[in-house]
């Protein structure tokens, strides 16, 4: 493990995008922390991606907890006795036709992570990157017209959760508490409709001011982009930006 690399905490680490980024970080020698409800599921997913048990044991700290309980979040933010340098959040709920879905995970989870950060009094607060969605921008339209009904009707509840999450990130980025910033910077990642059946090296990148319109992108590609453009850059490349990703 290289001590020169930033430490990274992953929330929602069993989600496709976040899990892909975590796997790449581990393969490339990063020391990581993962916050999950079911550790066994995370380990199984990483093993399936070719991450060895030895690498998991040496470079990954797994914390089991509930994102609605701040006290369980704090241990996931500390590695080697210090607050982590980067936080990647892929928190979110999956639509279901058979079970009741909690559409409050993002709007509750991110403020709780920020509360946990504040309580740890880090000398240098961590950088925060969150996975959001297209379709909730305050700028020019960032989804193709045929997708507008899907996004604003069928996906209204999860998108409201993401919108409120983004507001919490922006509030934390601008707020001072005890003369210390709550986070050192942020990137909001807005992928188009997520899929699993395609992976393409030609990912197009836009911003809230100049979005790129597209229909889909794979979770694997989103995770790779987060690893390459956020983690390896220490958050600096897209700091303060809402970034759209699509094919």
Give a brief description.
The protein is α/β, with parallel strands linked by helices and 247 residues long.
Describe it.
- There is one protein chain.
- 36% of the residues lie in helices and 22% in strands.
- The mean pLDDT is 93.
- An eight-stranded mixed sheet has the order 3-2-1-6-7-10-14-12, sandwiched between helices. Strands 4-5 form a two-stranded antiparallel sheet.
- It has 247 residues and is of the alpha/beta class.
- The protein is globular.
Q: How are the strands of the biggest sheet laid out side by side?
A: 3-2-1-6-7-10-14-12
Q: Major β-sheet, in short?
A: 8 strands, mixed
Measured on Cα atoms, how large is the radius of gyration?
17 Å
Q: What is the overall pLDDT average?
A: 93
Record field, number of beta strands: 14
Measured by DSSP, the beta-strand proportion falls in 15-25%
Cα shape = globular
Q: Assign the structural class, choosing from mainly alpha, mainly beta, alpha/beta, alpha+beta, or little secondary structure.
A: alpha/beta
> Uncertain segments of ≥5 residues (pLDDT<50)?
none
The helix fraction, in percent, is: 25-40%
The ordered string of helix (H) and strand (E) elements is: EHEHHEHEEEHEHHEEEEEEHE
Gap between N and C termini, in Å?
34 Å
Tally the helices. 8
Features:
247 residues; alpha/beta; eight-stranded mixed sheet; two-stranded antiparallel ribbon; 14 strands
Topology overview:
Blueprint: E1 8-11, H1 16-27, E2 32-36, H2 39-48, H3 53-59, E3 60-64, H4 70-73, E4 78-79, E5 82-83, E6 86-89, H5 105-120, E7 127-131, H6 148-154, H7 156-174, E8 176-177, E9 180-181, E10 185-191, E11 193-195, E12 204-207, E13 216-218, H8 219-231, E14 241-246
Parallel strand pairs: 1-2, 1-6, 2-3, 6-7, 7-10, 10-14, 11-13
Antiparallel strand pairs: 4-5, 8-9, 12-14
Helix pairs in contact: 1-8, 5-7
